[in-house]
Amino acid sequence: FMGFAFSNAGGGGSNLAQFQVGFASLDPYGALTAPFRDMLVATGLDVELVIDDQIEAARGRVASGELDALVILPSGFSKQLLEARNALTVEVVLDESTLDSQQGGQFIRSAYFRTMNIAQVAYLGVETSRLLKPYSSESERRAALEAGVEKATAAWMSTPLSAQFRKTADQQMAEGEKPN
Q1: Pick from 108, 1, 106: nearest CA to 47
Q2: Tell me: the pLDDT tens digits for 39-80?
């Protein structure tokens, strides 16, 4: 991540529900572009799409305080992460002098790491399948990779599972409790 600080001192209480993030992708048709945007939205941030010829104007909107942050995915982001397994730098422009921006930056990082996780899960699924039965073509492998991205994204977007821990009957008896 690259952060650019603009001076806009102040702060006050946190109001991330209204934290506005511009999202620009120089990888608009990449398999991970929509999942990254979806992960940003899932964190509760207000995400606005920025088309590539409006990126400089969006930087100005961050400087003026009209946007709280701008996230720019680089060209080739999806291919590099899925195929070469190289994480490219995602540019994040925000004013880190406010509490809201610091918290918003954490949510942006969370979306980034979730997207990296999605790519890793999809890649491992494809490689495991390839070991069991080789793909007949590169296009078949690519389709499986994209399907893996969709499944992993859906898993991140679904309601989280919860776990309940309880003592074993032996633990309960050792502590003088009646086993249930």
Answers
A1: 108
A2: 999 888 899 999 888 999 999 999 998 999 999 999 999 999
The amino acid present at 158, given as its one-letter code, is S
Q: Distance between terminal CA atoms of the chain? A: 51
Tokens describing residue 91: 């540019």
Structural tokens at position 34: 């929509």
What span, in angstroms and rounded, lies between the C-alpha atoms of 163 and 180? 18
Beta strands in 8-81 (DSSP E): 20-25, 46-49, 69-73
- What is the rounded CA–CA span in Å between residue 147 and residue 23? 24
Tracing tokens 């999202």 back to the chain, one arrives at: 23
- Please give the full DSSP string across 72-126, using - where no structure is assigned: EEPTTHHHIIIII--PPPPEEEE-TTSHHHHHHHHHHHHHHHHHHHHHHHHHHHH
